[in-house]
Amino acid sequence: MVRTLDDVERVGVVGAGTMGSGIAQVAAQAGYDVTMRDIEQDFVDSGFETIEDSLDRFVSRDSIDADEKAAILDRISGTTALSDLADCDVVVEAALEEMDVKQSIFTDLEDAVDDECLLATNTSTLSITTIASAIDSEERVVGLHFMNPVPVMEGVEIVEGEKSSSEALDLAHAFAEDLGKTTWESDDKPGFVANRILMPWINEGIRAFDEGVATKEDIDTGMELGTNVPMGPLTLADHIGLDICLHASETLHEELGDRYKPAYLLKRKVDAGDLGKKTGEGFYEYD
Ligand code: 3HC
Prior knowledge:
By secondary structure, the chain is α/β, with parallel strands linked by helices. The protein has helices at 18-29, 41-60, 66-74, 99-112, 128-132, 166-178, 194-210, 216-227, 233-240, 242-256, 264-271; strands at residues 10-14, 33-37, 76-79, 90-93, 118-121, 141-146, 155-160, 182-187.
């Protein structure tokens, strides 16, 4: 049986990349003590840099002041040892999107934390049930899928695995809401709600560009102004990371068949190392 929200004090985050650092940040902003773990100190340091940059943006628009920024940073400790998550009440895993990696982390986590700790994964497309099958206490595993950029995106998808208990799901909803997010729930089916619908949209945008339907700018403008989304498909793909889009699309393709086939140009860009904003070039170029 997992704890209730009232008993949650310390949050563990596995992975200090874009998503992990964002999750650590929003948990600390909500007042939780946070332990953020990655496999190398450099990754932990870079997670802290991402958090500082994001907090600076909140300071610059007066959402928080410098003292609050310092207090938030103070609540986060970094580590490379998974055993340092031992006293956590909720752990969110945001490591690589590789089933073997996630299963091995969950196996280690089950040994490291106590029996009442909620074990959540931020996976975007992998099966919660398969991840949970690596451990004995499958009932406390749920999907807690944050959206990028975590500090500003309001939505969090809660995913119910085959064995997830109602207590674990309740805590996942309550915890995400306590971080100021709004939740929705998805069954454990490939891509859940968000990526099942988003990835074909992005791939179709890429195919439309590749097949000469319009310029990339006009495709993005058409979707932004025509359907009132904040970013068109090519800009959004760059923002998410083309490698992440390709990996998610491949998982969906494998599970759901040809209607999810990744666009050829997406694969070519990833092969060329043009992964979007993070490498300075994707469909657009960035400083
Ligand atoms: N930290 C803190 N603040 C941030 C921030 C960050 N990381 N990123 C943006 N902001 C703030 C800005 O300071 C600004 O605040 P203001 O409105 O009070 O001035 C506001 O957010 C808007 O920022 P910008 O002006 O730089 O840019 P935009 O107006 O384009 O907004 C955006 C940025 C919120 C990212 C918006 O473009 C957007 O909503 N884009 C779509 C994002 C999206 O769809 N994400 C989901 C991707 S799918 C996913 O994550 C699932 C995964 O599994 C793949």
